[in-house]
Every structure is written in structure tokens, then in C-alpha cells.
Automatic annotation (TrEMBL):
Keyword vocabulary terms for this entry: Oxidoreductase
Keyword field contains Membrane: no
UniProt keyword Oxidoreductase present: yes
NCBIfam families, per database record: PRK07231.1
Alphabetized Pfam families for the sequence: adh_short_C2
Source species taxonomy: Eukaryota, Metazoa, Chordata, Craniata, Vertebrata
Single Gene Ontology MF annotation: carbonyl reductase (NADPH) activity
Gene3D superfamilies: NAD(P)-binding Rossmann-like Domain
Family in the record: Belongs to the short-chain dehydrogenases/reductases (SDR) family.
SUPFAM superfamilies for the chain: NAD(P)-binding Rossmann-fold domains
Name of the featured protein: Dehydrogenase/reductase 2
Amino acid sequence: MLPAVARGHLGWFHPCARLSVRMSSTGIDRKGILAERVAMVTGSTSGIGFAIARRLAQDGAHVVISSRKQQNVDRAVAQLQREGLSMAGTVCHVGKAEDRERLVATALEHCGAVDFLVCCAGVNPLVGSVLGTSEQIWDKILNVNVKSPALLLSQLLPYMEKRKGAVTLVSSIAAYFPAAELGVYNVSKTALLALTRTLALELAPKDIRVNCLVPGIIKTDFSKVLRGNESVCKYLREHHQMQRFGEPEDCAGIVSFLCSPDASYITGENIAVAGFSSRL
Ligand code: NAP
């Protein structure tokens, strides 16, 4: 029987019809700087992950997208394939070991290896104080936001070796400027900064780079509550140099760059895309 990913998407990857052109740092125009590379993006059927998946594919990569809900995967794959992009997808709740295994198996079955892993899936099921948080919620946030990228990467590592690949974790500006309302989420996103540096150190001998995208407030479903919060808006009016919320696409180009050979000597970095400086 075909895995869930195949339902409605027989045909899988197909050559990218529309590749973007980017000027490389060497000044030479190159079509599809990620051509023939394979990218896996978690939490990628909407928001930031979706924009990243689209951009990696526009830059030439074959992309495997995933999220928890089959209908979201089907919709996102269909939309991106209609745009002529090389795309497949499967259901993967990153907190579930069997789903992670299926995601890896799906990518291998259809692509043979993986070059880039982008861990975008993240949750914030509780808005409130750290000390009022139940053990169950602690476990859920840390499992999905912090443990799952490391566990998925360990499963994928044997298939990423010798390919000069790259990993991008997705933290949050809340790691630098914790908001009282975000409690354990702040903690989990700060842990990702440490995970980035630790993995970068561990994987440097294998020529795999690990960096971290640190988004500010980006216009997605995830941030709706924050964007409607008066104290957040007040903070932005006072401190936010660019005076606007970000768009998911604002986060996409930098991830493509971090995957590309132009970033071949960049690892262990946390890069804010926030409309203001993350420096303390
Ligand atoms: P979003 O628009 O709500 O999209 C979330 C995506 O992740 C969806 O595709 C969702 O699809 C999937 N997802 C949710 N839980 C998942 C899980 N356990 N396993 C796998 N997939 C899951 O959110 P977003 O704003 O793009 O956020 C993406 C990442 O950026 C998160 O890690 C978040 O912490 C981070 N971030 C966001 C902002 C912001 O302002 N938006 C700022 C800083 C950092 P399903 O429902 O089908 O699973």
C-alpha cells in the first residue's frame, strides 16, 4: 500500500518549471542555486514553513513538506505543485516518533537522501506564566519545540552525511526578549539557540552546518493573538524600528541562503528576521 503521502499525489516530484534566479556572492547568475538538492521542512503547510518550502523549491530544491493534518498537507502540496514546484508531502506530527520515522522513510523512498532539514514546527499551547504551567504542558512544548528537531536530525543524519548539508532551526525573538505572556515558549525558544550551537559543534566535522532563524512577529495564524495584544503593539510602537509586522516571505530567502553554497562557511549562527536588532 502506498504511504499516506502518496494519496492524491502520484507523480511526486517533477522538474521545477519556474526556478528563481539569484545573484551569487561571486557575481555570477545561477539558475536554481539549490538544484538537485533535497529539502525537508517540518510544520510547512502554512505560515513561515510554507513560505520557506516554496522558496527552497523556487530555488531548485525538491522539497518534502509535512504537518499534522492530511488535508493541510494535500492542500499545500497541490498549491505548490500548481506553481510548477517539485514538491511532495506527508503527515508528520513532529512530537510523534512514528510520524518522524514515516517522514524520513518518505523522503528516502522518493529522493534517496536529504541535504537540508528545516525544523519549523512549533507550538505554544499555553499563554501564561512559567510557574503556573503544568508538567503536561511543559512536556508538550519541550517535546515539540526542542526535542523533536534533535530526534529527527539523529534519524536523518546517516542520510545527510557526505552531502555538505545544512540544518536550520526556527527559534523566536522571544528567546532574546521574553514576553511575560509566553512563559514556557520563551524557554523553549531560548533552548533552541543553545541547540543550534551544540549541533553546529557536533556536526562541523561532518561538514553539516547548523544555523537558526529567529523570527520577530510574523503575520501568521500562530501570531494572531499576539498581534491583537495591546501591550505587544505598544512595545512595537516604542521599540520596533521598522514599525510593521513581518510577512512569512521575509523569513524565506535567508533560509535558502543558509542552505546554499554561498553560506558554506556559516554555522552556529542565530539570525534575527525581526525588523529590529536582536542584540542585547
Ligand atoms: P502557523 O502559520 O500557525 O503554521 C504552523 C504550521 O506548523 C502549520 O503548517 C501546522 O499545520 C504545523 N504544525 C503545528 N504543530 C505541528 C506539530 N506538532 N508537528 C508538525 N507540524 C505542526 O505558524 P508560524 O507562525 O508559521 O510558526 C512557525 C514557527 O515559527 C514556529 O516554530 C513558531 O514558534 C515560530 N515563530 C513564529 C513567529 C510568528 O510571529 N508567527 C515568531 C517567532 C517564531 P498542522 O496544523 O496541519 O499541523
